[in-house]
């Protein structure tokens, strides 16, 4: 990755600067990241402003919760929506506080990555960085349009809709930019590690056991320390509240679907179609952020060999024994010869177990379909009971599909695991 790759992050870093976080003066030529007194004062004013707005919003939602009621939601849906928007403001404030408190550590991280990035070479860095950035902005626009129509159709007060849009829009913008920056940093570290891996392989092939080899090893270790210590220290506690909030708000899409459409509030076909589409897209932008945050790249796969590979066989034996008891993979495991043997007794056991499980699950599914009232929980409302029966039926179908696939592909799975065991032994 060339130095221009970091220059492609200028737009994203400038966006974060306008949002009041990571306000640094970056010299891409000299690889310097500095913070002056003016930027520090602006960041402090941003933090004070966000804190004041958050306290005002929480007070308003606490004393006037009826202003946030959705006319076409039930009581459970309105309570869940109110909890979501309050948590949204609190988590956004926590992210701002962490970014302000650790701004010096972020400046050191940026400067270190700039220096390492100077000596690597790659030509497609711009495309890699532009795609997540513009994808996030596109999802931001879709999110705002979808929320506008969804809240208007759900019967929210006209004066409250701008509050919903401002809170969710601003939170999605700042949280998404932080997550996208983390993903871009991982791509930079991957390119740097690939460069050093290539250099070290060339040195080993040429037999250059000189100062250059040890210098490259030292720099490689520095990059590994940067990726596993500095990046985790800067983004670890930062991604924790972001991930927690995304997991909290992700069910709002299905909940919106249950509280509006399944309640029978929209009889017309076109309204039903629009509300279904709104519910499907409702949580999609937040799920994409979760994928960005939880994505595993080659940096996280770089690990030293800390234990003997023979332990894999012992661990695998325990898992196979557990799966054997569950009737999923009924084989005899020979640890000495790394062989998985399927005896006729094992085949009969697998067939009998599969037939028994499929019969029991089919009976449960049929009973739940014919007698749904037997599964109702007295303290639940109609929507909650309907949701519980849907989840029970889906669980039955998933279990049926799982046992059918594992039974008919058992020989293929056995060959795959046996090959892995033989490779591990070598």
Automatic annotation (TrEMBL):
Pfam families named among the record's database cross-references: 7tm_7
Spans traversing the lipid bilayer: 43-63, 83-101, 133-152, 172-193, 231-252, 272-297, 349-370, 390-408
Domain of life from the UniProt record: Eukaryota
Membrane topology reported for the UniProt record: Multi-pass membrane protein
One of the GO biological process terms: signal transduction
Keyword Manganese belongs to the record: no
Keywords: Cell membrane, Membrane, Receptor, Transducer, Transmembrane, Transmembrane helix
Signal sequence coordinates: none
Subcellular location: Cell membrane
InterPro entries the record matches: 7TM_chemorcpt
Cellular component aspect of the GO annotation: plasma membrane
Family: Belongs to the insect chemoreceptor superfamily. Gustatory receptor (GR) family.
Function text: Gustatory receptor which mediates acceptance or avoidance behavior, depending on its substrates.
Protein name as catalogued: Gustatory receptor
Source organism (scientific name): Drosophila rhopaloa (Fruit fly)
